[in-house]
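Priority: medium. Attachment 1 of 2:
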């Protein structure tokens, strides 16, 4: 806001009169100063056809002070903080990022940079407050006309048979990395077809945990996968749990099984996203004496009534495909 001041002066000197005036203009120091703010969105490993529209919300605070709070805009586009009139009825200050480009800069207009007020106790004094901002991913839309699906404070969200990990750099840079769920087939193989009369083996699915140790994957009665007694999102799971185990024929039909449910490529551990890697462990075999025999999951060789076999290091994977466990039999 500009304010004009006019000054005039009349004087008499040595019997002569003189007068004049001049005008100055200054900016009123009381009021709001607005600014624009550049924000950056990045997609990583995300096929265009599996990208949602990402919704991010602007949060702000008094510079270097306190917690960030949701910034809102009224119907006139004014930037509001909780102490401002009309904040409760205003809408969150949001920005939507489309799916077409791998990265994009967007300038947000109308953000409050600083506010100057007169001191209530001493109107001759001015109080100036400066503000700072951060962008937070708060939801997504499957298309432009769809409603927003909120994601709360999570660092991930499930979408299109996969999971998007959310990362934030500085206060204005958001990154989404897509990890597709895993479609697995489990397979049994014998080297040189020396099966020692073993007609079936039992295998169990294991995953590599946050300590880089392979431990069993479990499941509930409805087929939900469980990792260390928690679901893929880190929520505790109660009730009966079962191993992800399959019986595979030694050769021919039945020596492979396709899992009927996709496995998560990443799980949440201590509020962090952990990428999973899977492998097989052989835990039993069925042979000519028509009985099941247990195998230590960590065993590398096994004695049988017809000889012995070694278990090669099973393959491991963090992608869709086939997991194979191979035995090399030696007859007595």
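Attachment 2 of 2:
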């Amino acid at each position: 806001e500009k304010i004009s001041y006019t000054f005039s002066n009349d004087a008499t000197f040595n019997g002569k009169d003189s007068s004049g005036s001049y005008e100055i203009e200054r900016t009123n120091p009381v009021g709001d100063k607005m600014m624009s703010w550049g924000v950056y969105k990045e997609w990583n490993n995300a096929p265009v056809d599996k990208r949602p529209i990402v919704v991010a919300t602007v949060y702000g605070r008094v510079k270097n002070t306190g917690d960030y709070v949701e910034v809102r805009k009224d119907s006139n586009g004014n930037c509001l903080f909780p102490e401002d009139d009309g904040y409760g009825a205003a809408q969150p200050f949001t920005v939507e990022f489309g799916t077409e480009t791998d990265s994009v800069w967007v300038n947000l207009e109308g953000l409050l940079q600083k506010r100057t007020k007169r001191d209530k106790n001493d109107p001759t004094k001015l109080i100036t407050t400066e503000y700072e901002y951060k962008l937070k991913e708060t939801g997504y839309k499957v298309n432009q006309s769809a409603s927003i699906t909120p994601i709360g404070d999570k660092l991930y969200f499930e979408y299109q048979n996969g999971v998007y990990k959310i990362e934030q750099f500085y206060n204005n840079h958001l990154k989404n990395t897509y990890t597709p769920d895993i479609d697995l087939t489990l397979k049994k193989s014998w080297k040189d077809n020396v099966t020692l009369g073993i007609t079936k083996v039992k295998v169990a699915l294991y995953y590599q945990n946050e300590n880089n140790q392979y431990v069993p994957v479990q499941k509930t009665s409805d087929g939900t996968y469980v990792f260390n007694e928690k679901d893929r999102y880190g929520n505790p799971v109660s009730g009966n749990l079962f191993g992800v185990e399959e019986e595979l024929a030694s050769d021919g039909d039945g020596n492979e099984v396709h899992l009927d449910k996709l496995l998560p490529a990443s799980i949440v551990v201590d509020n962090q996203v952990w990428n999973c890697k899977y492998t097989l462990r052989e835990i039993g075999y069925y042979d000519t004496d028509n009985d099941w025999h247990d195998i230590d999951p960590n065993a590398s060789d096994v004695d049988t009534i017809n000889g012995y076999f070694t278990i090669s290091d099973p393959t491991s994977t963090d992608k869709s495909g086939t997991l194979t466990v191979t035995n090399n039999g030696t007859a007595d």
